[in-house]
Amino acid sequence: MFGKVLDKIQNIINTITGIMLFTMVCIVFVQVIMRYLMGHSISWSEELTRYMFVWMIYAGVNLGIKSGIQIKIDVVDMIFKGNAIKTVRILEHILTIVAILFAAYGSIMLIKVGFRATSPSLHVPMWIMYLVFPVGFLLDLVETIRRIVIEMKGDEGV
């Protein structure tokens, strides 16, 4: 049940990141046309595409965790087999959780700073832009815990 809900959330994230990627390409295309053919640039385009890119990355990291393509040492998978590899993978996930928690704590500090600043071109409060970090880390945390449960059950279909 929980796995299906998480899958639906990840499908929504996939759709949103796809829309953001398409929008970014359109904005950059228009910016290039404006700059080189019209001699004028759109002042907010670079800033908006940068923020969209960051949102895409942080919202999409959990999809990499789900697919097992997050940063890890692949040689470990070749050395260990059977129950040993299961234990090693659980330890990898626990270390991932520790890293996520440290990063999430740092992101909360960043949001506090963001309450005092606005973006230069869009004039959006920076705390809104910085929300991507705890949101992304929460998604990563949930998916990593899900991976631990899957490893412990030995069921890759969850």
TrEMBL record:
Localization (cell): Cell inner membrane
Entry keyword annotation includes Transmembrane: yes
Topology within the bilayer: Multi-pass membrane protein
Assigned keywords, A-Z: Cell inner membrane, Cell membrane, Membrane, Transmembrane, Transmembrane helix, Transport
Tripartite ATP-independent periplasmic transporters DctQ component domain boundaries: 24-149
Matching Pfam families: DctQ
TM region(s), chain numbering: 12-38, 50-69, 90-111, 123-142
Family membership: Belongs to the TRAP transporter small permease family.
Name of the protein described by the UniProt record: TRAP transporter small permease
Species lineage: Bacteria, Bacillati, Bacillota, Clostridia, Lachnospirales
